Amino acid sequence: MLDEVEALLASKVLVVDACRHVVRDPRTVVSFARRRVLFALARALGEAWPRDVPRDMLLARAFGAKLADESHRARLRVEVGRLRTMLQTLAGIGATKRGFVLASRRAREVVVLARPVEEEHAAVLAFLADGESWSSSALALALGASQRTVQRALDSLAEQGRCSRSVSGELVAGSPQPCRDSRRLCCYPLHFRMTRMEA
Q1: DSSP per position, 14-55
Q2: How many Cα atoms within 13 Å fall on the side-chain side of residue 142?
Q3: Which of 16, 17, 62, 146 could form a disulfide with 40 if both were Cys (CB 3.0 to 4.6 A apart)?
Q4: Contact 156/149 with Cβ under 8 angstroms?
Q5: pLDDT class of 85 with cuts at 50, 70, 90
Q6: Where are the alpha helices (DSSP H) in the chain?
Q7: Which residues are CB-neighbours of 105 under 8 A, at least 6 positions away?
Q8: CA of 77: how far to CAs of 22, 23, 46, in Å?
Q9: Pairing state of beta strands 91-95 and 99-104?
Q10: Which pLDDT does position 2 carry in this prediction?
Q11: Could you tell me if 7 and 104 lie in one domain?
Q12: Looking at the structure, do residues 97 and 9 belong to the same domain, yes or no?
């Protein structure tokens, strides 16, 4: 899997990287680490490429707006303008009758790189995905989170049937659902170091 990600990042495609919140091609990397709304718009446009994305869908993805009014539409125009400025060397964003469309400048294809599990407790599931048992204290240390936060996440996942207690009391998870979109390559959270620790 990591070989595929490395090959993708070295190829001549425009990558909307949801693992690192960047948009990149082999020559340029634009970071959206502190621009959540703009990255949500870039990702939605990347997922739809080469098709356009309706304005209502962009409003829902970027702002969580269920019913859009004129102020939402005005804000969308402002944010799309900011996104155009940030992506000017990599891609253009054109207006269509329904919404907006992403047009890559140098790359022949647009790909979205995303984690295989994107949900509230994705980081915990990533550690449990191989079926190995982890204590909540070891998970907390590995995740850089409090043990209580990890325990709440594990309790929630156990209620959903996503993980269960082993005989020793440690938690193990079922396999995460595979990524089904053929244009979306899934990656594990690369910023976590997988170290085995004694409970």
Answers
A1: EEEETTTTEEE-SS-EEE-TT-HHHHHHHHHHHHHTTS-EEH
A2: 23
A3: 62
A4: no
A5: very high
A6: 2-10, 36-48, 55-63, 70-86, 122-128, 136-143, 147-159
A7: 89, 90, 91, 92
A8: 21, 20, 18
A9: antiparallel
A10: 67
A11: yes
A12: yes
Burial of 37 (0-12, 13-18, 19+ CB in 10 A): middle
pLDDT of 171-196, one tens digit each?
554 433 444 444 443 333 322 222 23
| 100 alpha carbon, distance to own chain's centre | 21
Q: What is the DSSP letter of 118?
A: -
Q: Give the structural domain span for 131.
A: 118-176
Number of domains in the chain: 2
* CATH number of domain containing 6: 1.10.10.10
Tokens of 139: 């998970």
Note the pTM of the prediction, 2 decimals.
0.63
Based on the domain organization, do 20 and 72 belong to the same domain? yes
Q: Mark whether 64 and 140 lie in a shared domain.
A: no
Per residue in 53-81, pLDDT (tens digit) is 999 999 998 888 777 788 888 999 999 99
Residue 97 — very low, low, confident or very high, per pLDDT cuts 50/70/90? very high
